[in-house]
Automatic annotation (TrEMBL):
Its EC number is 5.3.1.24. Residues 7-201 form the N-(5'phosphoribosyl) anthranilate isomerase (PRAI) domain. This is N-(5'-phosphoribosyl)anthranilate isomerase. It catalyses: N-(5-phospho-beta-D-ribosyl)anthranilate = 1-(2-carboxyphenylamino)-1-deoxy-D-ribulose 5-phosphate. The keyword Ligase does not apply. InterPro entries: Aldolase_TIM (IPR013785), PRAI_dom (IPR001240), RibuloseP-bd_barrel (IPR011060), TrpF_fam (IPR044643). Pathway: Amino-acid biosynthesis; L-tryptophan biosynthesis; L-tryptophan from chorismate: step 3/5. Gene3D superfamilies: Aldolase class I. It comes from the Bacteria. It comes from Aquipseudomonas campi.
Length: 206
């Protein structure tokens, strides 16, 4: 099995982006959702992306954003990948000239494979924890045994991961990548460089 990739999401500061890159993060996430404590402005996103070294994928997270508003952001921010974290249909995820991943919020009884099949054009799916009324960033893990062993697209595992539990999560789910935000923070939107390093080290060693 190839090494599991790591995404550090909810980056709001240049120094945190650089620390994540130095630690070996494959991707960073920028949240364009005003209600999130980790939301960034266009100007913040531009500064963060401009500071990054090559080969770090920049991911923009959106929640049910109107198409015209999202296109305005893409005209100003050179994102590599889009992450749709709301109730977007496949049609609402397409047409931006960027690859995308679709977040699915997992709860008992879900048919994850059937939900994935609704997004055939997605590059992968991100599995997060279902909490009523909250699109993500809850800091809560879901029951990893709900994830089928064989799925047709790359799986990015999120939801309540920490440096201490990521190895166990990888052993159980065997995801393509892991995604963390709150589990490596000293405060909402402020990353702890030591925790970021510990998370990526644990993910790579799993």
């Amino acid at each position: 099995m190839s090494a599991v990739r790591s995404k550090i999401c909810g980056i709001t500061r240049v120094e945190d982006a650089l620390a994540a890159a130095a630690a070996g993060a494959d991707a960073i996430g920028l949240v364009f959702y005003a209600r999130s404590p980790r939301a960034v402005s266009v100007a913040q996103a531009q500064q963060i992306i401009a500071a990054l070294p090559p080969f770090v994928t920049t991911v923009g997270l959106f929640v049910d954003m109107p198409r015209a508003e999202l296109q305005q952001i893409l005209a100003q921010v050179p994102l590599d990948l889009l992450q749709f974290h709301g109730d977007e249909s496949v049609e609402q995820c397409e047409g931006y000239g960027r690859p995308y991943i679709k977040a699915l919020r997992v709860k008992a009884g879900d048919d994850i494979a059937a939900q994935m099949a609704q997004y055939p054009s997605a590059s992968g799916v991100l599995l997060d924890t279902f909490v009523e009324g909250v699109p993500g960033g809850t800091g809560l893990a879901f029951d990893w045994s709900l994830v089928p062993a064989e799925l047709p697209k790359p799986v990015i595992l999120a939801g309540g991961l920490t440096p201490d539990n990521v190895a166990a999560a990888i052993a159980r789910v065997r995801p393509y990548a892991v995604d963390i935000s709150g589990g490596v923070e000293s405060a909402k939107g402020i990353k702890d460089a030591d925790k970021v390093r510990a998370f990526i080290r644990a993910a790579r060693g799993a």
